[in-house]
């Protein structure tokens, strides 16, 4: 099954000093028997520089790549925080852009197949984009998408913050960018509007997915999987749940739930 474990699932373990990125790779490979990494830059950034997080030196990124190669693992997604596109302050926007370029170069070193760089905006006050914001967002994603295409990966935002939490705004961005290397990391069910049809609206651009505990147990999970598959989705089904405690066990439980959902959906499809 195409399943993965988002690095943020071990954020609390990392903050406790009990796991670094190399421990994450060991855990995914040998505890959960997966050959893919669903990386999150939170394991190798300087969080004290937030909200524009400074990435580790290139030599460290190359060590991560060496560890991936040693374990014969590939990176199905690289989720980037602290390098989002939009901020109303032009100076901060410039620094975010420069940080995004650093992360794009790291994505090439890591061999990432997909990269998530967010739209920007607030996590709390969700509004549609102004014309200035839309124009900047589209131009910048188009530039990043061309870089991604030139280097063999896909790129785009997650429904994570700001206007990206509105599926119709995500659709508007995708239609305006209009680039084959542009798409979405769809965190299933995480919408602030059009909740029931949000996943369907963005399904044609989905390049990666994340389940959390809530979406995995929702009554609509099977339908969502079917919706994305019917739209042509062939990517990975990731889990991303930063459990408050017992993270190894909670990750194992959620991974089993997602595998069962995929098996159940496949059974329904074969019987149709």
UniProtKB/TrEMBL annotation:
It holds the Pfam family AP_endonuc_2. The keyword NAD does not apply. Residues 57-249 form the Xylose isomerase-like TIM barrel domain. GO terms for molecular function: isomerase activity. Keywords: Isomerase. It comes from the Bacteria. The keyword Ribonucleoprotein does not apply. This is Sugar phosphate isomerase/epimerase. It comes from Paenibacillus catalpae. The lineage of its organism: Bacteria, Bacillati, Bacillota, Bacilli, Bacillales.
């Amino acid at each position: 099954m195409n399943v993965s474990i988002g690095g943020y699932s071990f954020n609390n373990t990392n903050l406790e000093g009990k796991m670094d990125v190399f421990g994450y790779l060991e855990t995914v490979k040998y505890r959960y028997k997966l050959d893919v990494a669903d990386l999150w830059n939170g394991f190798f950034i300087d969080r004290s520089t937030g909200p524009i997080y400074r990435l580790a030196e290139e030599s460290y990124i190359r060590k991560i790549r060496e560890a991936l190669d040693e374990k014969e693992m590939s990176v199905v997604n690289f989720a980037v925080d602290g390098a989002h596109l939009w901020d109303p302050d032009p100076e901060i926007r410039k620094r975010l852009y420069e940080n995004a370029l650093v992360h794009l170069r790291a994505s090439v070193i890591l061999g990432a197949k997909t990269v998530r760089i967010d739209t920007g905006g607030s996590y709390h006050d969700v509004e549609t984009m102004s014309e200035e914001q839309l124009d900047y967002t589209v131009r910048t994603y188009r530039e990043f998408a061309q870089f991604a295409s030139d280097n063999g990966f896909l790129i785009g935002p997650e429904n994570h913050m700001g206007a990206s939490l509105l599926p119709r705004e995500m659709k508007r961005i995708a239609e305006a960018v209009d680039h084959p290397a542009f798409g979405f990391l769809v965190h299933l069910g995480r919408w602030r509007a059009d909740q029931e049809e949000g996943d369907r609206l963005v399904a044609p651009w989905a390049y990666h997915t994340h389940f959390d505990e809530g979406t995995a147990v929702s009554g609509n999970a099977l339908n969502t999987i079917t919706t994305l598959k019917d739209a042509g989705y062939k990517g990975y089904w990731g889990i991303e749940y930063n459990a408050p405690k017992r993270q190894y066990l909670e990750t194992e439980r959620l991974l089993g739930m997602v595998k069962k959902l995929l098996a159940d959906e496949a059974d329904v499809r074969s019987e149709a």
